[in-house]
Amino acid sequence: MQGVYEYFPLERVIFGKPLEESLIQELDRHGARRIFVLASQTLSRRTDALERIREVLGERYVGVFDEMPAHSPRSALLKALELARAAEPDMLLSLGGGSSIDGAKLVQVGLAENIRTHTDFDPFHAQRGADGQIFVPRIRDSGIRQIAIPTTLSGAEYTTTGGSVDDIGKKKDLYIAPQLVPVSVILDPTITRLTTEWLWLSTGFRAVDHAVESICSPTANPFTDATCIHGLRMLQRSMRATRRDPENLEARLQSQMGVWLSTSGMGRGQHGASHGISYSLAAIANVPHGHCSCVLLPATMRFNAVVNADRQAIVSEALDRPGQPAADALLELLEELGMPRRLRDVGVKREQLEQIADTVVASGQARFNPRPIRDASDVMEILETAW
Predict the structure, then answer these.
(1) Domain ends where: 168, 190, 212?
(2) Is residue 2 part of a domain?
(3) 3-state DSSP of 263-331
(4) CATH of residue 353
(5) How far apart, in whole angstroms, are the C-alpha atoms of residue 59 and residue 25?
(6) β-sheet bridge partners, residue 149
(7) Each residue of 42-84: pLDDT tens digit?
(8) pTM score, two decimals?
(9) For the chain, how many structural domains are there in total?
(10) What is d(CA 342, CA 143) in angstroms, rounded to the nearest whole number?
């Protein structure tokens, strides 16, 4: 066995303490005096969450952007960048799910690289060269980092990758740099009660996808096995518990910590077709990240079962369904959580399937699937199974 495990510059994960106490401590620790917030519009305008944060920040609060749609599109990022430049922050704070967290990462990129137009993003996202290899451009470090207060289970807070949809080119781009991972993550289950059930549970299944594809990755290693298998157990049990009782704060915290463990392979290992297809599915059919995993992961597991049945057996055991096919165990979990299981259930049109398949192959984002994705027909087999 050979490999490399890269540690990202995430300094602290603070769990179970009131966010007000934790946030003040982290701001003081970093000497941050000018905080620009990226918040979910729902949390900002329909709950008191932003007011709680503003009260803590006091004079350190210098502005907010709360109009980030799903998948952090370039058009919204340009608006956020305009506000952020005027605010002159020395720290970014995200309050919300993956779109707010990724939005903050892309604001870091925009401030460092002076991005002001739609096409200014083009030189900085990962790209596939003529030789088929993926090239990751260098992104300058502005010195401005992010503190994340996640309210969903997306796991974006633990990665060095920020995703953004090119809403003209209709594709999902990935921006990768060590400094994009938040410097601190604050896990407070009390604020997650403001998250709608479908979003909490669907992003939780996205974290299940992180764990499963890490366990099944050709580059799995003892560290990711240990964290992802335990994280998967924590996730599936705690998500079932919060489905039964949304006010169960201990179960919510268990889910948050399960995400922490389950993302240990994100950005380090080689993930498979469920993740690879989801980027195109999101860009072309505008399917939320969590729902992408719901409809793609079981079908991907069926496609891969002929080459990694031994690894899939580990997944079934972690789902408390030993001896059952992993795809069936995942579909059973989805049914219990009340989540969609078919592409047509999340608004995907059959005529979009070929475009999705072609885009996946062109991007190379499913190239590390355990069973090789050689051409669009392989992607179509997964999509047809998920249809």
Answers:
(1) 190
(2) no
(3) CCCCCCCCCCHHHHHHHHHHHHHCCCHHHHHHHHHHHHHHHHHHHHHHHHHHHHHHCCCCCCCHHHHHH
(4) 1.20.1090.10
(5) 16
(6) 95
(7) 888 888 999 999 999 999 999 999 999 888 999 999 999 999 9
(8) 0.92
(9) 2
(10) 43
Distances (CA, A) of 238 to 177, 249, 267, 345, 374: 32, 10, 25, 25, 37
* CB-count burial class (<10 Å; 0-12, 13-18, 19+) for 377: exposed
Q: In terms of residues, how long is the chain?
A: 387
**At 211, which helix (H) or strand (E)?**
helix 197-215
- Co-location of 169 and 270 in the same domain: no
Same domain, 214 and 95: no
Beta bridge partners of 174: 163
Q: Which residues form the domain of 377? A: 196-386
Final residue of a domain: which of 190, 223, 242?
190
How many other CB atoms are there within 10 angstroms of residue 21's CB atom?
13
Percent helix, percent strand, percent coil in the chain, to nearest 5? 55, 10, 30
β partners of residue 148? 94, 185
Amino acid making up residue 142 = S
Strand partners, 65: 38
Give the closest residue to 357 by CA, choosing from 343, 340, 346, 345: 343
> Which DSSP letter does residue 324 get?
S
Residue type, 275: H
Partnered with residue 36 across adjacent β-strands are 63, 92
Rounded Cα distance, 60 and 67, in Å: 21
**pLDDT computed for residue 57 by the predictor:** 96
Here the tokens at position 366 are: 């499913």
Q: What is the CATH number of the domain that holds 174?
A: 3.40.50.1970
pLDDT tier at 269 (50, 70, 90 boundaries)?
A: low
| Cα–Cα distance measured from residue 35 to residue 355, given in angstroms and rounded to the nearest whole number | 41
Stretch (H or E) spanning 164 = strand 161-166
